Each structure stands twice: as C-alpha cells, then as structure tokens.
Amino acid sequence: MIRINLLPYRERIKKENLKRQITIIAGSFIIFLLALIYIQIALSSSIGTLEKKIKESDEKLVVLKKKLVDIEVFKQDIKGVEQKLSVIKGLEESRFFPVRMLDELAMLTPTKDIWLEKLSGTGPELRIEGVARNNVIVARFMKSLEFSSIVSSVSLVSTKQMEVSGFKLQHFTLSCTLKKG
Predict the structure, then answer these.
(1) From the CB of residue 139, how many other CB atoms can be counted at a distance below 10 Å?
(2) Of 180, 127, 140, 138, nearest to 160 (Cα)?
(3) Whose CA, among 36, 127, 148, 172, lies 20 to 30 Å from 18?
(4) pTM to 2 decimal places
(5) Using CA atoms, how far apart are residues 181 and 178, in angstroms rounded to an integer?
(6) What's the chain's average pLDDT?
(7) Is the Cβ–Cβ distance between 108 and 144 less than 8 Å?
(8) What is the CATH number assigned to the segment(s) 97-178?
(9) Which of 121, 115, 107, 129 is nearest to 164 (CA)?
C-alpha cells in the first residue's frame, strides 16, 4: 500500500526554518543587548572610579598648593636670614679694621717730627690733619702712608706755615683712600 501525505510538508519545513531563524535573531538580539548593558555598566563603573580619582587628586592638589605656599614663605625667610647673616659677616670682617688702621697709622707717624691733630673718615676716604717740622717730613710721611697696607693713595690737600712758640711749623691736611679691609 502506498501512502500519500497530503499535508504540505514543505510549508511545515519553511515554518520551522522561519521559527529557527526568528529564534536565532531573537537570541542574537538578546545577547547583543546583554553585551551593551555589560559595556554600559563597565563604562559607568570606570567613569565613577575616574571621577573619584579626580576628586582625590584635586584634594591632594589643594593640600600641595598650601604646602607650596608654605615652602615659598620658608624660602623668603631663608633669604632674609641669609641677608642678615651676610651683613653680620661683613660687619664681623670689618670690625677690627679701625683698630688696625689706627695702630698702623701710629706706627707710621714719626713721633718727634709730626703731631696728628685730627682724623676724620667717610667711607673709604680718610682725612688727616696735623703739624710737622717741615715739608720734607710731610713728604716722607706721605710716602710711608702710600706703602702701608691700609692706604691705597695719598694726596696733599693743603700745607700752611704757622708759628708756634717761636718755631716755624707746617700745618698740613692729607686726603687718603683706604684699602678695603
């Protein structure tokens, strides 16, 4: 006996293929949506973490800026102290110069021939006024001053003859430039 299938079997296969394709497309779409949701969640989490790090970095930046201001103030304080120390060092170095200058001037002055009356100084200039027996002694005194370790140059400002107790003496004024000491 021969059996004949009167049901449309091709339509059933087409329907099954269509169902399979719809299932595959729906499954792919669901997987695609799940992948998008996963990527969105991952990016949101990453953005949150980065925003948190930015906030922490901003807070650290504020703290570091405060420290930078403190460091600048500290540097200014150090600079001020260094300036004060340099002034103190300069004063310390030149503290004994007047004593040395007067000592050397006393050693260079011939005690029996010259009498110093007045010493005045402003900065590197020294003005010496005194009385000598004659001009030759004044010239020798000037030469000895030029070769001393405290004076760099000597110039005669004036000399006048004067009489004291019957003796003719020379009143002189010298201008000296002191060496830095």
Answers:
(1) 14
(2) 138
(3) 36
(4) 0.52
(5) 8
(6) 88
(7) yes
(8) 3.30.980.50
(9) 115
